[in-house]
Design brief:
- About 40% of the residues are buried.
- It contains ten helices and seven strands.
- By secondary structure, the protein is an alpha/beta fold.
- Helix 3 packs across helix 7 and helix 8 packs antiparallel against helix 9.
- It is globular, with a radius of gyration of 18 Å.
């Protein structure tokens, strides 16, 4: 699971995820397993029955979402009978990854994921013996976006033999790194480490990361202004917390317990994109 590949690249965040402050809510807390399966079949984002037990009470029923407990089992090697290889893809920014990540996780941007999984053929022969788990801070935008991009490229590459694809066993960590960190701090590196995307100590890094995602001068200017707005929000309306003992090692404060600061409610945007893939 650890190939020594630690590409700490940056992944884009939508403008909506920067400007909203409420955590994604479940579309329907009573959605049945059959309904979730129908959604996945209709969007063709998860065209087959997965090997692992997936969640249905999620804001992303079209994707294969795993609980933190199942991902912990993967990290501990408890599914060696099902998979020959496991890749956990951390879709957060570099400074978030350095501040704390799941043991063995790799930090990849969309571009690097394309190179790793589509241009590079090293993993394509594994088929359903390869398990890939995507996550970001809350798994509300960056991770689903990466998942959908790889699934779309995989389908296009295998259009003539579909539903056969390179990576049928792809999953999303429900609740993202934050939930996993709460449940299994001992499986995080460094132990118990967690840096929020909106950590006031890393506003300059976030600004650089987002500017690098802009494909045009206007987009870069807009992202720069968005980061400036966040900086003003943190200093003007938010109480900046002091570093907590036993939290992030050597990386300063983080407000790691603030449940109100996250990547935003992306469910409408994600559903619109799902229909197009």
């Amino acid at each position: 699971m650890n190939d020594g590949i630690r590409e700490r690249n940056l992944l884009s965040v939508s403008t909506d995820s920067l400007m909203h402050s409420k955590q994604p809510k479940l579309l329907n807390e009573n959605i049945s397993r059959q309904e979730a399966e129908l959604i996945r079949n209709r969007t063709k984002l998860s065209p087959r029955k997965p090997k692992l037990e997936i969640l249905t009470n999620t804001s992303l029923p079209e994707l294969n979402c795993l609980s933190s407990s199942v991902v912990a089992q993967l990290v501990k090697g408890e599914f060696e009978n099902l998979f020959e290889k496991i890749i956990i893809v951390d879709c957060r920014f570099e400074y978030e990854y350095v501040g704390g990540h799941i043991i063995g996780a790799l930090n990849y941007s969309e571009e690097k994921l394309d190179e790793l999984l589509m241009k590079n053929t090293d993993y394509q022969h594994y088929g359903d013996m390869l398990c890939i788990v995507f996550h970001c801070e809350f798994s509300s935008h960056r991770a689903p976006k990466a998942y959908k991009k790889i699934r779309s490229l995989d389908r296009k590459r295998n259009e003539q033999v579909y539903p056969k694809i390179f990576y049928p066993e792809m999953y999303i960590l429900e609740g993202g790194y934050k939930q996993f960190w709460k449940d299994y701090p001992e499986l995080c590196d460094p132990h118990g480490g967690y840096v929020e995307m909106k950590d006031p100590s890393f506003v300059p890094e976030m600004k650089i990361a987002m500017q690098s995602r802009g494909k045009s001068k206007s987009q870069r200017r807009f992202f720069s202004q968005s980061c400036s707005n966040i900086f003003l929000e943190l200093n003007g309306t938010s109480k900046i917390k002091q570093p907590r003992v036993g939290g992030v090692v050597g990386l300063g404060g983080g407000g790691v317990d603030n449940d109100n600061e996250n990547e935003g409610n992306e469910k409408n945007t994600l559903r619109t994109n799902s229909a197009r893939i």
